[in-house]
Amino acid sequence: MIVRAMRGNYASFVVAQAMVECGTTEVEMTVQLNIKDPETVRLARELAGATGQPVTQAIKQALEHELRRREEEVDATVTRLREIAREFRADIPEEWRGRTSKEWMEDIYDSDGLPR
């Protein structure tokens, strides 16, 4: 197998070598992420070293954490907006309830768009 792979490119050789080392004849192709920013690579390695995990696992957990944090942030914003809407509805004068915003504007502004 290594001889056949060597006829191809270097990547094929590396895959074949890894297959021999792992004792397998099956190759599972995975999605690759090529990080070209040296500072990002440094941070990923630093996180992996600090957590004692492989770089891929450290990056995966960091990404999952950030996605959860953003989801919680959106949920908190939606909750706050709902609270504001409830407060707003509670403060609407009784005579304005059930009316459209156009009807409100007609009461507040004259036909020239100036406040009444």
Task: State the main characteristics.
116 residues; 5 helices; 0% strand; disordered N terminus
Describe the structure.
67% of the residues lie in helices and 0% in strands. The chain is built from five helices and no strands. Helix 3 (38-51) packs across helix 4 (55-91). Residues 1-8 have low confidence and may be disordered. With 116 residues, the protein is mainly alpha-helical. It holds the Pfam family PSK_trans_fac. This is Type II toxin-antitoxin system VapB family antitoxin.
Helix fraction, binned, reads: 55-70%
Shape verdict? elongated
Mean pLDDT: 83
- Unreliable stretches covering 5 or more consecutive residues: 1-8
- End-to-end distance: 88 Å
* Total of helices: 5
Order of helices and strands: HHHHH
The secondary-structure class comes to: mainly alpha
Over all CA atoms, what is the radius of gyration? 30 Å
Pfam family, one: PSK_trans_fac
Protein name: Type II toxin-antitoxin system VapB family antitoxin
InterPro entries: VapB-like
Organism: Sphingomonas agrestis
Describe how the helices and strands are arranged.
Blueprint: H1 2-7, H2 10-22, H3 38-51, H4 55-91, H5 101-108
Q: Can I get a quick summary?
A:
This is Type II toxin-antitoxin system VapB family antitoxin. This protein has helices at 2-7, 10-22, 38-51, 55-91, 101-108.
